[in-house]
Write a structure and sequence with these properties.
This protein has 22 helices and five strands. The protein is mainly alpha-helical. The chain starts with 12 loop residues before the first helix and ends in a 6-residue tail after the last helix.
């Protein structure tokens, strides 16, 4: 967002001041109207107004309108147009799933400023999502040519190296970089996580764990205190959800303009196999893999927790969800919505879509916890930097899932990762049957495919099905002793 002020004597000044104050206060919809009033009142258009309005429309999830308003800011000659193209690329890639258009927008950003690192990162990410290792490497090398110590670029290069079984090369490169003085703390954190993964691949487990510990310690220091994991707040939220029983909608799928199948929601703990589950289900001829959507968390954020919805609210919010999905996947008949933390919102999902099936992915808890601890989530998952915090979160998750099962047991389908990688056909036959889908052999195919995938472990899930991640915690049995004791009966060692 940009900030620009009119001369205080101008009759436009009060309108501008009001619009800016509303935007800064996070009052999105009043701010949208205020900027529209401001634009209508100006004798000559200003690029900043259109940029700010586009930003607000994006916040309000009006993505197509946001793109058009960003175009207007560009047409008016806004300074630093690369920022505008970057924002457009994010909308196109993350929300509308128009990857080719996102690549074009990023190319435009880099044409404006070839040293614009965020555009190089976003371009590399799209290449990774598509499985284009060579192109992703080239983008990361551009970043490293500009900033040789950039920890994130080195970390992502390491992920590609490990996919190609080049752990030794990765370790040599990381060791050299970490030997440099003056590294920023965030770069060093990224490098520790990358080194840990490379050492794990080289089966140097004790050394790997030390790096993961150091990376997580740095990550805890870097996180915004306001975003730090709050165990008491998590307890209160789960207690509130359990104490509240959402009312079932009287009419099944009421308010839809036509009979449509409910989305297939896939959720569970992060790193529990949700991406693999979606890849296999999405191979079915009647299903479109939709990836991760923000729609349900965004709806939940605008409601009290826990929420009881009226019939009119259900129709409105269901249509809001449908419109976002249709904008991204206009030809899809049945779609998956893979968002691991949607397990928090199963009550809301079942109010909006009473017929919805919930695929709940799970795996050995020790493996799951270790996998969370070994991945750098930055601010995204604040509990992931401390094993005790992860255990607390897992216990809250387990309590809540037991509650949802008591309400919606038949509609919650457990998909066990460890069973899936060992017996893919048996597991997938059961899953498809529960989803009322006929059997198709592609859904248990163990070989890789070229489908795009958006996940932190994008390279790992591209490997053919294997059970190498099952029982991984045993390589770190000594380091996991306290976790095992804390989980107690919740696990089977």
């Amino acid at each position: 967002m940009t900030v620009g002020f009119q001369n205080s004597a101008s009759p436009i000044a009060p309108l501008q001041r009001n619009a800016m104050q509303l935007m800064m206060a996070g009052q999105i919809r009043p701010a949208i109207q205020a900027f529209r009033d401001l634009i209508a009142a100006r004798p000559a258009p200003m690029a900043d107004d259109w940029y700010n309005l586009a930003y607000l429309l994006r916040c309000d999830r009006q993505f197509e309108a946001a793109l058009k308003h960003y175009d207007q800011a560009l047409a008016l000659g806004i300074p630093q147009p690369e920022d505008v193209y970057l924002n457009q690329a994010a909308i196109l890639s993350e929300h509308l799933h128009r990857q080719d258009a996102a690549v074009d927008a990023l190319a435009s950003a880099l044409k404006c400023n070839s040293h614009f690192v965020p555009a190089w990162f976003n371009l590399a990410t799209i290449h990774e999502d598509r499985g284009q290792a060579q192109e992703a490497r080239a983008a990361y090398r551009h970043i490293l040519d500009l900033y040789p110590d950039n920890g994130r670029a080195h970390a992502r290069m390491t992920a590609i190296d490990l996919y190609h079984d080049q752990a030794v090369d990765a370790l040599n490169r990381l060791t050299h970089v970490m030997g440099q003085s003056g590294l920023h703390a965030e770069d060093r954190a990224e490098l520790h996580f990358a080194s840990g993964l490379a050492l794990d691949a080289a089966q140097k487990f004790d050394e790997a764990f030390v790096h993961f510990q150091q990376g997580n310690q740095l990550a805890r220091q870097l996180i915004d205190p306001a975003l730090a994991y709050d165990r008491a707040a998590m307890d209160r939220m789960v207690d509130g959800l359990i104490a509240h029983v959402p009312e079932q909608s009287g009419a099944r799928q009421m308010g839809d303009s036509e009979e449509r199948s409910a989305p297939i929601f896939i959720c569970g703990l992060f790193r529990s196999g949700s991406t693999l589950a979606e890849r296999l289900i999405g191979r079915h001829s009647r299903v479109t893999a939709g990836g991760e959507h923000e729609s349900i968390p965004a709806i939940a954020a605008g409601l009290p927790s826990p929420a009881t919805l009226s019939s009119s609210q259900i129709v409105q919010l269901r249509n809001q969800y449908r419109s976002e999905i249709d904008a991204a996947f206009p030809d899809a008949s049945r779609i998956t919505d893979k968002r691991p933390d949607n397990f928090l919102h199963i009550g809301l999902i079942k109010q909006l879509f009473p017929d919805a099936k919930i695929i709940h992915t799970r795996r050995n808890l020790l493996d799951n916890i270790l996998s969370i601890y070994f991945l750098y989530f930055a601010d995204g998952i604040s509990y992931g930097f401390d094993l005790d915090d992860i255990v607390h979160y897992v216990r809250c998750y387990d309590r809540l899932m037991q509650h949802w099962r008591s309400l919606y047991g038949e509609d919650i389908i457990d998909l066990d990762y460890d069973a899936l990688v060992q017996h893919p056909e048996m597991v997938m036959r059961a899953v498809l049957s529960a989803l009322d889908l006929p059997w198709e052999e592609d859904c248990a195919r163990t070989s890789n495919d070229n489908a795009a995938v958006k996940t932190a472990s994008s390279w790992h899930v591209r490997k053919p099905l294997n059970d190498r991640s099952s029982g991984r915690w045993r390589n770190y049995a000594r380091q996991m002793d306290d976790v095992r004791r804390a989980l107690g009966d919740a696990i089977e060692a």
